[in-house]
Amino acid sequence: DTAVSQTPKYLVTQMGNDKSIKCEQNLGHDTMYWYKQDSKKFLKIMFSYNNKELIINETVPNRFSPKSPDKAHLNLHINSLELGDSAVYFCASSPSRGNTIYFGEGSWLTVV
Amino acid sequence: GDSVTQMEGPVTLSEEAFLTINCTYTATGYPSLFWYVQYPGEGLQLLLKATKADDKGSNKGFEATYRKETTSFHLEKGSVQVSDSAVYFCARTHTGNQFYFGTGTSLTVIP
Fold first, then answer.
1. Per-residue b/e over B86-108, b at no fewer than 16 CB within 10 Å?
2. CB-defined contacts A:B, below 8 A
3. Measured between alpha carbons, how far is A70 from A56 in angstroms, rounded to an integer?
4. Which of A78-87, B7-16, B26-35, B91-100 has the lowest mean pLDDT?
5. Strands, DSSP E only, in chain B?
6. What percent of chain A has pLDDT over 90?
7. Min Cα separation B107/chain A (Å)
């Protein structure tokens, strides 16, 4: 079974649309993250949740809204998509007192 | 502030060459240190880690030693293979279960 799974893996959509990426982890971890990786492979943290509560909210446009219905899920909703949102989005999780982070396989978002 | 700096790529090596990818960190306190690897089209996978000074992490022939005196965690492998071609990320923990990642180093191994 995949530890951190995210869907869809590939998403091509038009500017102005609203889309969601879903993430689930079956590791029993308390903390989940969303990272954005740009075309130069640079990783930037966007959000982090611990037990469904937001603990990190980096400088991200408010078109991006995370939602954590329970501690095993952290979904990312994006409104009014822009060309610059094209990137790979990674979900990840870690134990609250652990120190290893586990990544999903990524969601390749292309805005046209 | 606290950060991670790793050598810029891309790095191109011939098969069986020796690999070093430098990583240094700045930190208050004693972070845990990591190397993650990202193969083409995939997510990041933990390669190795070290949680305290002088610890050596190792996996798949890769090694890195936590050097507090030089604040470094350089990745090494004695003989690279074509299958090692990937992007390598150095990372460290921060307070509140946060992680800082370096900018990534792309490695291409040619036969």
1. bbbbbbbbbeebbbbbbbbbbbe
2. 51
3. 17
4. B91-100
5. 3-6, 11-14, 19-21, 23-26, 33-38, 44-50, 56-59, 62-65, 75-77, 86-94, 98-101, 105-110
6. 71
7. 13
Mean pLDDT of A16-36: 95
Closest partner CB to A99 (pick from B42, B51, B89):
B51
Q: In this prediction, what percent of chain A has a pLDDT beyond 70?
A: 96
Mean pLDDT in residue range A99-110:
92
CA-wise closest residue to B90 among B18, B9, B13, B1:
B9
Amino acid at B34: F
Residue contact A103–B45, C-beta within 8 A: yes
A46-61 residue pLDDT tens: 988 888 888 777 778 9
Whole-number pLDDT of residue B105 = 95
Structure token pair of residue B64: 């890195």
CB contact under 8 A, A50 and B97: yes
Taking residue B37's Cβ as centre, other Cβ atoms within 10 Å add up to 20
**A contacts of B48 (beta carbons < 8 Å):** none
Q: How close A14 comes to chain B (CA, Å)?
A: 23
Is the pLDDT at A98 greater than 70? The verdict is no
Query: What are the CA-CA distances from residue A46 to residues A107, B55, B57 (Å)?
Result: 14, 31, 28
